[in-house]
Amino acid sequence: MYLQTPTWSESLREVAFIEPVDGIAEAPEGHISLAWSLREGDAGQLPKELPKELPKGAEYVLERSRSPDFADETVLYQGKDRGTFVSGMAEGNYYFRVFIRQGERVGPMGDVLVVNVTYVERQKVVLLLAVGFLVFIATVGVIIFGSIRSNQGELN
Amino acid sequence: MEGIDTQTVLQPSTGWLLLAVFGSIWIGLGIYWGRKAKNLEGFMLAGRNVGLALGAATAMATWVTSNTVMVAPSLAMRQGIWGMVAYSTACFGLLLFAPMALRIKNLIPKGYTSGDFIYKRYGRVAWGIFMTITSVYSLAWLVTMGVAGGKLIEVLTGIPYEYGMSVILFVCVAYTLFGGLFAVIGTDFIQSIIILIGVVAIGGVILSRLEMPEIYQSIETTQPALLDVFMPVALLSFFNLMFFGWGEVFHNNVWWSRAFAIRKKVVSKAFLLAGFCWFPIPIAAGFIALSAAPLGINIIDPDTTAPLVASYLLGGTGAVLVFIVVFCSLASSIDSLLAATADLLTEDVYKRLIRPQASDAELRRGASIIIIGIGLLTWAICWPKWDLLMVLYISGPLVASTIWPIVAGLFWQKSNPTASCLAMLLGSMIGLWAYFSIAWYVATLVSTVVSMLIVVIGTLIFPKPCDWRRIAGADHTQPDNG
Questions:
Q1: In terms of residue numbers, what domain contains B281?
Q2: Cβ atoms of A117 and A91 closer than 8 Å
Q3: What span, in angstroms and rounded, lies between the C-alpha atoms of B373 and B371?
């Protein structure tokens, strides 16, 4: 776990989610696209000319947790890309954060992103599946019986 | 988990070389086969004499689109096991079209287009609605393939999206222009063999390199919903995707033109064979996508999952193989759609509305101009890098609304024309409302249900018998008036 004592460094800047932007998002289908970027610097704390690229040997680290304190965090991605696609989430809240890591050094934590996954109600799913099945049977029936009648010369 | 960044596997020079080699082969074959098309019927319907092997190959290759090899993995990434199974249900479209194709051959042996059938069966208003639906759908399908081609080339080689997309469209337009349906079916045969061998080779090698228990454990831990047998969205998309596939096949002139082109004795077998050969392809393509996260491959755009995973596992050789397979699947579908849509517009719009007395030479020239026009329009719409699923699924409610008007029109003598018009119109509109107001994964189902109810109730209350012999007749300009 990298996050107990984050080490501040001017070269390791804070990272912010740029997609979604509001810090909270809904994922009704259990997946979400995430994108992040180096946060624009505060002139009082950081040099005016900020590097646009990651420092040498540094990587982005994306973590996900089911609890806001990241007690059970999982590293979902570690590398130089500035986005990822997260899928297969079960129902409930997920917490994401992204930061820079350079060897043993860890940059400051950005804002936490909360993603809520709420699927369609099961009763609705069962109802729609039943409707789909009826349409399936009806259509296949018309085609098969129609073909038999056509091949017997009844539809000429 | 150590992430693997999205870097290109092949050099841009290798990508250009592959594009040049395969582009030249397809255009060369288009010119060669184009010599066989002596008249309009040869150009549009390959002389109506296509046998079982070529017929099955062209149907299968056409149905293996960029969507099969790019969207099926994308669906597996989003919806897991059910996602790829749901996509594979599109094979029912081909399987059910097998008996329909024989019925079409029996009913209108000298037919040219699906639009022609709708006009003669249901009249001008229904024909207008149908032509609007099929034009929008055909364009959407072409756009998804152009976008998929550009994305694939960019991901694998680093060639900018706009260049790759433009080259693929140019190659397909060029050889369809020279060869018509002869070239389309001929190249489809070669492309289907390459696709089948390529998919089996890629799938086999990938399977041998994956540690299945570890993959399963990883997915269960980090992406549990992908293995959930009751994943709501995936279950709902099951019938949604199935009816989308039915709507695509039942209405589109790509399949009707093949029904007219294949010999009557083998037409059903050809579509059945194509359906069975197609069925495992999206499952194989989807399966490799499930291994992306366990392997630590960072997916930013789910549409690019398949090429990224395959090239990671197979290296440069694998990337070349993926490139060739997807290029073939793109070309085999774009050419078919270009040819069939050009036939439809030539016969149903130019000849019917503008110049009924046009000669064969004029019609062939018109078809060529239309092919170029469709190619240019597709190219312009492809320029923004659209989301493949968004473009594809928005046309789902439209095509699904045609299922029942077509099925009832072919098999029910008393199917009501007014009900069929309303079915297409209201099915499309309510389906699109569901797409925007509820969710994409119910839109096609809603459209199918609305359309079915209108056709069934309309026909039961107001049956309107038609004269089958009139529909089969040689006069292609008059609708059946009951």
A1: 12-124+152-387
A2: yes
A3: 5
B428 lies in some domain: no
Query: How far is it, in rounded angstroms, from Cα B346 to Cα B61?
Result: 24
Per-residue burial over B436-448, b if 16 or more Cβ lie within 10 Å, else e, is eeebbbbbbbbbb
Q: Which residues of B253-270 are buried (b: 16+ CB within 10 A; e: fewer)?
A: bbbbbbbbbbeeebbbbb
B228 near A CB under 8 A: yes
Q: Can you list the positions of beta strands (E) in B275-388?
A: none
Whether B240 is covered by a domain: the verdict is yes
Lowest mean pLDDT among A73-87, B194-208, B354-368: B194-208
Confidence check on the interface: ipTM exceeds 0.90, yes or no: no
The answer for A 7-66 residues in CB contact with B (under 8 A) is 28-31, 33, 59
Nearest to B247 by CA among B402, B98, B139, B133: B402
Weakest mean pLDDT among B30-34, B376-380, B405-409: B30-34
Structural domain contains residue B68: yes
- The number of distinct structural domains making up chain B is 1
In the predicted model, what is the mean pLDDT of chain A?
Answer: 84
Instruction: Answer whether residue B405 is part of any domain.
Output: no
Q: Select the residue of B2, B225, B407 nearest A90 (Cβ to Cβ).
A: B225
Closest CA–CA distance from residue B145 to any residue of chain A (Å): 22
Q: How many Å apart are CA B196 and CA B223, to the nearest integer?
A: 30
In 3D space, the residue among B74, B132, B69, B144 whose CA is nearest the CA of residue B302 turns out to be B74
Query: Does B379 have pLDDT greater than 90?
Result: yes
pLDDT over 80 at B365, yes or no: yes
CB contact under 8 A, B233 and A132: no
What DSSP letter does each residue of B203-238 carry, written as one string? HHHHHHH--HHHHHHHHHHH-GGGG-TT-HHHHHHH
* Amino acid B39: pLDDT: 66
Pick among A143, A149, A154, A155 to test the B interface (most B CBs inside 10 A): A143
Beta bridge partners of B50: B262
Q: Which residue of A has its CA nearest to B444?
A: A132
Percent of chain B past pLDDT 90, that is, above it, reads 36
What's the mean pLDDT in B185-200? 82
Nearest partner of B326 among B113, B94, B10, B83, judged by Cα = B10
Instruction: Write out pLDDT tens, residues B243-285.
Output: 999 999 999 988 998 899 899 999 999 999 999 988 888 888 8
